[in-house]
UniProtKB/TrEMBL annotation:
GO terms for biological process: cellular response to lipid. The chain crosses the membrane at residues 32-55, 104-126, 146-169, 202-228, 240-262, 274-297. Pfam families: 7tm_4 (PF13853). Keywords: G-protein coupled receptor, Membrane, Olfaction, Receptor, Sensory transduction, Transducer, Transmembrane, Transmembrane helix. Residues 47-299 form the G-protein coupled receptors family 1 profile domain. GO terms for cellular component: plasma membrane. It comes from the Eukaryota. One of its GO terms (molecular function) is G protein-coupled receptor activity. It comes from Podarcis muralis (Wall lizard). It is a multi-pass membrane protein. InterPro entries: GPCR_Rhodpsn, GPCR_Rhodpsn_7TM, Olfact_rcpt, OR51/52/56-like. It is found in: Membrane. This is Olfactory receptor 51H1-like.
Length: 299
């Protein structure tokens, strides 16, 4: 009896690493995904660094819209560098093991940059609202000091919301499979492998999604409702279209960012019956496709 208890207690602490996966059941085809991911990663780095350099060098771009764009570029770089090296090591070199603490660190940075980017998209919607409703007072309503304060609030919110996640995961014993569903670490993915009560993690994750994601989406919808109301009062049809055209790229970036994120979250919570390949594709889209949002915003 004592020996069985001892073996059980040892198994609770046995997982010092997690195993990441590529294409489920088709590991020999992982290299097919590696090269497109490498190209995407390279273009993301070059594109975002170029945007940051151009905005910094050209004083005519020292406007709130471009400051928010530079914040989006930085968060996009952070998200890319948090995920792509691990994904490339899995798909290209078949290096699939990741230490437990490294996995926790990666999920912290992924989720932090995810919420920072969401907050920046809200700030950009607010920026478009001010620019269209009060074009003559745009600079006075959004001076550089206000832009900096908004950036600090967005950064602080992202860090504070995700700060408890590593501690919530670290307290859990992992005595089941240590194979994750993706080629990088996510809180909801690692949580499913725990052999203990995860209701605290579930409740906290649900609270974050409702309070942060829900608030961000509602804020964006309200901003665009006010923008649409303002645009419809413009007498000139040409000026109306011109005003709406300034929002097209931002709307596309919002859809590209939120749809994969919500889809991946829903798949984890309600799609356990789905094929592992579906989960893999959605997870890769979640971290790869939103990188194009920054390029859309510069269009």
């Amino acid at each position: 009896m004592m020996s069985s208890i001892t073996r059980f207690n040892e198994s609770l602490m046995s997982h010092q690493t997690f195993v990441l996966i590529g294409i489920p059941g088709m590991q020999e085809k992982n290299s097919w995904v590696a090269f497109p991911l490498f190209v995407l990663y390279t273009l993301t780095l070059l594109g975002n660094f170029t945007i940051l350099y151009v905005i910094k060098s050209d004083t005519s771009l020292h406007e709130p819209m471009y400051f928010f764009l530079s914040m989006l570029a930085r968060s996009d770089l952070g998200l890319s560098m948090s995920t792509m090296p691990t994904m490339l090591s899995v798909y290209w070199f078949d290096f699939r093991e990741i230490p437990f603490n490294a996995c926790i660190s990666q999920m912290f940075f992924i989720h932090t940059f995810q919420w920072i980017e969401s907050g920046i998209l809200v700030a950009m919607a607010f920026d478009r609202l001010i620019a269209i409703r009060h074009p003559l007072r745009y600079r006075s309503l959004l001076p550089n000091s206000v832009v900096v304060k908004i950036g600090i609030v967005v950064l602080s919110r992202g860090l504070c919301v995700i700060f408890p996640i590593p501690f919530l995961i670290k307290r859990l014993p992992f005595c089941r499979s240590n194979v994750l569903s993706h080629s990088y670490c996510l809180h909801q993915d690692a949580m499913k492998l725990a052999c203990a009560d995860t209701r605290v993690n579930l409740l906290y994750g649900l609270t974050v999604v409702i309070s942060s994601l829900g608030l961000d989406v509602v804020s964006i919808l309200v901003s665009y409702a006010l923008i649409l109301r303002t645009v419809l009062t413009i007498a000139s049809h040409q000026e109306c279209l011109k005003a709406l055209n300034t929002c097209v790229a931002h709307i596309a970036a919002i859809l590209i960012f939120y749809v994969p994120m919500i889809g991946t979250s829903m798949a984890h919570r309600f799609g356990r019956h789905l094929s592992p390949i579906v989960h893999m594709l959605m997870a890769n889209i979640f971290v790869a496709v939103p990188h194009f949002s920054i390029l859309l915003c510069t269009a």
